[in-house]
Amino acid sequence: MKKKTLLKLLKISFCFILLCVFCIFLSHKLVQKNAKEKIFSETKNIPKNKVGLILGTSKTLRNGQINLYYKYRLNAAIELFKSEKIEYIVISGDNSSKNYDEPTDFKNDLIKAGIPENKIFLDYAGFRTLDSVVRIKEIFGQNSVTIISQKFHNERAIYLAEYFNIKAVGFNAKGIYGKYGLKVQLREYLARVKVFVDILCNVKPKFLGKKIKVE
């Protein structure tokens, strides 16, 4: 009797693992396929948009070194603006505590690079990609946007944007490969599954608030 129970549990566990693997694979492929021809790595090919949306990340790592995801997103936004493919930049990131402020870090470095301060807008409630995408429409009034992040992140953000009836393209910041980027890339597979979980559960941004006119 115990042997039968054990075999049954093993079969259930095996089926559950297979289901999880299938969901991860399907989510990945749907997000990836949807973004085809909507993501760009060169400014000459990307269509113009009024607003570029930087998806925030921390400026430094725990060891104090510069976060390359931050550095490359910053460089991508500067390149896009100076190529006149966007007129304004909205930086959406986490400012959940006094000592952690992703949007302001980006803003300061953009200004140092010659981007006029009046062309930069900050979204302090971009706690998740979903929040950033929904808020660019509901708070900043944009129905079309250029998303600025790494390719994998742009693909996911575009899927969310289109679900919320936002026309979006992505400008790919330089990617991170090897050991440095492996953890993020593995985590991305689960993040893509969560896209569909959030859609099914009708998840909303943590905060909305007063509208901000971008001009």
Summarize the structure.
The protein is α/β, with parallel strands linked by helices and 215 residues long.
Average predicted confidence as pLDDT: 93
Gap between N and C termini, in Å?
73 Å
Our estimate of the beta-strand percent is 15-25%
Radius of gyration: 19 Å
What are the low-pLDDT stretches, counting only 5+ consecutive residues below 50?
none
Following the backbone from N to C, one meets helices and strands in this order, namely: HEEHEHEHEHEH
**Spatial arrangement of strands, main beta sheet:** 1-6-5-2-3-4
Strands, total number: 6
Share in helix: 40-55%
Structural class assignment: alpha/beta
- In terms of quaternary structure, what is this? single chain
How does the overall form come out from the CA principal axes? elongated
Separate helix tally: 6
Observed structural traits:
6-stranded parallel β-sheet, elongated, 215 residues, 48% helix, alpha/beta
